[in-house]
């Protein structure tokens, strides 16, 4: 979904919305919502229509270097093709295509300031690379399509795991929703345990009622003549609308123009479009170098010396006991209860040996003899009393 929003950020201000409206593909309000991806299916359909409309021939590279208008819409096509490739990878449970599509989308998150995805997609891709090296069995399962969820027997219908969880939650909530789960731990636990089972039972019942007396369908629900005809009509209508507004691939000006009004964008926008690929590449390389290579690549560096570790542990203990002392001044403190719980992130290390093994064995014998002698003395004393 964020990839669709990224494409919306790129197309904002280009009058792409006006072209969709003029082609009667969507109303003004609906077409404007495509920029924010408020309805995923409709937004994806709009990008499919646009991508099919923008297909062009071999001279695109030369035109891209000479004409900013051509470059802008060719980059739009590349972005939309990446988005549709990602959708296909999930729908077909194609793990290699999924990885390649993420690599294609990643620079756009940096270029258009989608910070969360720009930071976490590289981590996700690094984990995929680690899986290839460290967990070949898990890689085989993913390549078999088990990184997605297949809820039906239809083709091209796999969905992402988070989408499957959302659908299960929606089934359990119903019309009234689920209120107060986070306030009641017992209710939350019942939701977590019983939710998937209830959703499965409900889905099985609805599926049985739906297919009673009919043959099971293996085709995708959009794989029918009506849907294909609608898509073809939308593509032809958008082609006609863009040609009426002025084909951006035939513009020979060195300026960047708004599609509908033909307003000339200022020089900074033109410069940003021409250098967007360079900027996104530099931002990605900088992030990978600073956050992944330098941060995680120095694991073989020497650990801190023992003395530094002791000093850090002592400082932590001082802060801990100072807080404990202050707390005991204002409330009734119980040291035994306090030390019953873990109060440090790791257990304290054993002290270094103060004597040799031979001296330690002799000391242990003396301590054992002293404990036995004291126990005998207490026993004699109790008998005399």
Oligomeric state of the chains in view: single chain
Estimate the mean pLDDT confidence: 77
The count of β-strands is 0
Order of helices and strands: HHHHHHHHHHHHHHHHH
Shape descriptor: extended
Q: How is this structure best described in words?
A:
This protein is an all-alpha fold and 385 residues long. Helix content is 68%, strand content 0%. The chain is built from 17 helices and no strands.
What order do the helices and strands come in, and which of them pair?
Elements: H1 2-11, H2 16-22, H3 28-34, H4 40-53, H5 60-66, H6 68-91, H7 95-111, H8 115-134, H9 136-143, H10 161-173, H11 185-210, H12 225-245, H13 267-274, H14 276-296, H15 306-330, H16 335-339, H17 357-384
Write out key terms for the chains shown.
17 helices; 385 residues; mainly alpha; 68% helix
Report a brief summary of the structure.
This protein is an all-alpha fold. The protein contains 17 helices and no strands.
């Amino acid at each position: 979904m964020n990839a669709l929003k990224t494409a919306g950020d790129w197309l904002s201000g280009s009058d792409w919305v006006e072209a969709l409206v003029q082609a009667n593909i969507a109303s003004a309000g609906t077409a404007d919502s495509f920029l924010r991806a408020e309805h995923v299916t409709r937004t994806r359909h709009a990008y499919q229509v646009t991508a099919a409309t923008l297909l062009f021939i071999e001279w695109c590279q030369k035109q891209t270097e000479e004409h900013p208008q051509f470059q802008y819409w060719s980059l739009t096509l590349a972005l939309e093709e990446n988005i549709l490739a990602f959708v296909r990878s999930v729908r077909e449970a194609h793990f290699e295509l999924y990885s390649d599509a993420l690599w294609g989308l990643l620079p756009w998150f940096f270029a258009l300031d989608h910070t969360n995805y720009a930071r976490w997609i590289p981590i996700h891709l690094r984990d995929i690379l680690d899986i290839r090296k460290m967990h070949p069995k898990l890689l085989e399962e993913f390549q078999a399509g088990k990184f997605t969820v297949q809820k039906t027997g239809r083709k091209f219908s796999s969905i992402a795991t988070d989408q499957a969880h959302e659908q299960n939650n929606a089934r359990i909530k119903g019309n009234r929703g689920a209120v107060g789960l986070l306030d009641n731990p017992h209710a939350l636990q019942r939701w977590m345990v019983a939710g998937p089972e209830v959703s499965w039972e409900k889905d099985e019942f609805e599926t049985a009622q739906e297919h009673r007396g009919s043959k099971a369908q293996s085709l995708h629900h959009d794989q029918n003549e009506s849907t294909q005809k609608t898509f073809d009509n939308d593509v032809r209508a958008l082609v006609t609308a863009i040609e009426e507004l002025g084909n951006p691939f035939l513009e020979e000006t060195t300026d960047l123009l708004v599609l509908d009004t033909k307003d000339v964008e200022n020089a900074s926008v033109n410069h940003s479009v021409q250098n967007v690929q360079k900027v996104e590449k530099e931002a990605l390389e900088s992030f990978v170098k600073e956050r992944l290579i330098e941060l995680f690549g120095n694991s073989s560096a020497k650990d801190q010396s023992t003395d530094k570790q002791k000093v850090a542990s002592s400082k932590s203990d001082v802060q801990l006991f100072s807080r404990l002392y202050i707390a005991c001044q204002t409330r009734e403190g119980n040291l035994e209860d306090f030390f019953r719980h873990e109060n440090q992130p790791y257990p304290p290390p054993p002290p270094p040996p103060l004597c040799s093994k031979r001296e330690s064995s002799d000391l242990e014998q003396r301590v054992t003899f002293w404990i036995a002698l004291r126990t005998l003395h207490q026993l004699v004393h109790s008998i005399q009393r």
